[in-house]
Amino acid sequence: MNFGVCYYPEHWPEERWPLDAKLMRQAGITTVRIGEFSWSKLERREGEYSFEWLDRSLSILASEGIRVVLGTPTATPPKWIMDRHPEIYMRDNKGIVRGFGHRRHYCYNNPDYHVYVRSIVTKMAERYGSNESVIAWQIDNEFGCTDTTRCYCPNCSSAFQQWLEDKYTDIDNLNEQWGTVFWSQIYNAFSEIELPAYTVFPLHNPGMELDFRRFSSDSAVRFQKLQLDIIRSIAPGQPITHNMMGMFNEINDFDLSKELDFTSLDSYPNLMFADKPDPRNAALALDATRGFKQSNFWVMEHQSGPPGGNILFPTPRPGELRKWTYQSVAHGADAILYFRWRTCLFGAEQFWHGLLPHDGIPGRRYEEAARTGEELHRLLPLMEGIGSGAEVAIIRSYENEWIMEIQPQTFEHYYERQLKAYYRYFYNNRIPVDVVSDDCDFETYKLVVLPHYMMAKPGVAEKLERYTAAGGTVVLDIRSGTKLWNNRMDDTTLPGAFRELLGIRITDYGTLRKGESRRIEAADGKHIGQGTVWYDVINCVKAEPIAWYAEDYMAGTPAATRNAVGKGTAYYFGTGADPDCMLSLMGLVCESAGISPIAEVSAPEEVELARRADSAQRFIFAINHAGEEQSLQLAAPMRELISDRVLEGKAVIPAYGVYVFA
Hints:
Helix content is about 30%, strand content about 20%. By secondary structure, the chain is of the alpha/beta class.
């Protein structure tokens, strides 16, 4: 089992290293991540490599039985590189240079930077590719974090032009796809195309905007592959990962994950930027990471103390570190590494707290991590590799998320909010869910939900029709099928490519501003909730209504529909359902689809229920996110694995407590 910390020996005197390693071992730590920000320490000047300090650190860790995930240090190119090649700096859409002093300030497409990257990664792979202490590699650090993907420098301009030429071949094909006849934007050569940089009226051609986001994401994928290829050529067989950001969306992480051996997540539940952390947001990020490769993952950075750069976020209360750790495990984490080992005394993250405080003396957080590690050493081997056993898939489409950022169409609403509305329904109703791409195999699920599937990816409509006809259940909603895959409008009647699947025609539509809503009723006239954000006026061709508008000019027309397709059913929600309306509509959908919630345990809403299951085994997690004890009701006697005792009937779970049942 891999249970560990992120460690920065270069921040501390060498005399301290043996004590750190000893304290790690005593806490049950088996794995550290190391090296990902150490380039200027490894290569102080060009070609002057200094690996001896890292050798000594690895040796000291190995003496305590601790293994290493080695990070390539390319997130922080040294000052001497940037001074020699200032063109490596990223530029924002106003042409402002990102500048030195942070991290990830480089451009993915700069050929001069690639030379230096190849050199440092090759040297590291040659030195440590056969080192028994190195069990895996991490490429760079947090691609797509803090707005570090879309660059507007001259190198990106040239690279974008080439990317477009490779995609469209002929300039008139691009003109047609983008519709450049609008505003007299017809191009005569790919070399004429400029990046969609800042303008006084910030609205570029939507086809160009989408392609630029696709290009920028592809640039990160190619930059990662540059390093992957080097390590695999020198150290074949060593697994490689990257630490992703869950629900961040600058990069298509489905693409980024394809060539990785496993995915990793950086998880900071207290950084959800709300009045208080919402465990549903943390759970969604975990499930999204599991969905990148449809397999379990590592948490490469797990919050261990109050995070903060210039402002501190809340300090984890006693028990919260442990319960967040178990939440990660419950959603598919097969390894946990806390960030960081010891709180740094200097630099931009001196308030980003680790297991040890600034003075380096073990205290409450260290002891809680040690207790958690002892438990996980017993439990994780029982469930390693076992996924969620989910019957429901939510389809996450980065490209549909991007186009709704480019043209939101409504105020106070965006793609992720809609995805979260579905996710929270399933979370609240104890239904495990996978968050996956539209390339996945739908046949493995009873229900597939596609939030705001505005652009119809070629082949997906036909794929959904086959899936539904074979007995599957599909949910689509507002704006579905509005556009083609090039981000121009579909000229067929809405819902475009999905009109036959859904058996409806949309004859009118409109937005609902913030605070506006429309009453929604069931067949018996019972109020079931409010429609928000948007309304479609629906004509049922083959479908039957399951909910109706009760006010405004569309009163009496369908707000949601159901269409029988072969052995299955396709649903359409023609408005943004508020929580009550979502509960009613999705309750009907799930009952019809035969979706099974976690039934072995009943719990109040403060207690999260999650599951890891396969055809042979089933593990139920009860995680109390409240600061007070809660009561559970067990359907039958069950063994609680942490305490190794059988519980039955009513069971009390302590504040921030965790039970794992088998």
